[in-house]
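thread: overnight batch results

M.L. [08:02]
morning all. the overnight job finished for the chain we discussed friday. pasting input first so we're all looking at the same thing
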Amino acid sequence: MRKTLGINVSHHVSFAYFEDDVLKEFYEEDRFNKIKHFTPPHPVFHGPYEYLVLKKFKNITFDTVLFSSADRGDIIIEKAVVDPILSQIKFKNMQFYHREHHIFHALSGFYFSNFNEALCLICDGGSERYDEHDEKRFKAYESIYKINNHEIITFYKHYSNARDDYFEIYENNPDEVNLKRKHVDIKLSNKLCGGAKYIKYRDEAGFDAHQEGQLMGIAAYINKNTDLDKKVLEIANKAQEETLQERIELIEKALTYDNCKNIILSGGYHLNCANNFKLVKHFSKLNFFVDPIPHDAGTSIGNAYAHIKYEKNFKN
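M.L. [08:03]
and the structure it wrote out:
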């Protein structure tokens, strides 16, 4: 029996334990340490941290441990986060991935679905970089994949550098370039979309970090008789409507690559249950499955499943 541990070291640190190709245990560290949205502390700045989840695995020697991240931009920084975890577990082999974040979202959704094949659409607040030498800091915000039981095909990726400068660049000088890279359609832009756009509107509405759900919730009151601030309601409605249209356009784009009727939605944006439901209604002839762990915690499942099921394809 092969024992595999997938670990996400982005926010929402998580651990996915597989025996052969079956997920046996899944944990998020913040459920144990009570620190919401927990991100691995850097040992230089915060000192040593003992992972509470790992006590559950103290009697297991893993055949392979796999790490994934949302790409901090420097492997030295990633190593400083990974090494303390390795010191707390027993293992034979280790691999680390930092530019496959969206694929791992897609594979998490595919693992939980009953589909034999599906188009997987990913949208989040920005993850892996376009290129390790990229000085303009382009990060992935949207991706389209086709996954079946044998292979993963990447059709499209949208990278943007808007999140670093969105108030100036997006509003005053929108631009984009479309190109091909290893048979994948690539868009490079300085435009806000998906999770990054939602963060912008969250801030404008006066909500704190990680309060996107509140923004989503109050959007439903836009035409209601309520004492809620009308300006905040308008911002919330704008966030919902604009990003919904983006998701509609991404699904339409996906269908130009392949006529598969099975659609998987993942990435942090798809915690947006209100707009997920609207997508299901809009595309009534498609079969939808929303990843039950669409935020970064789910990528620990995706990275382990990639190694177990798609190792040859993945290396290619």
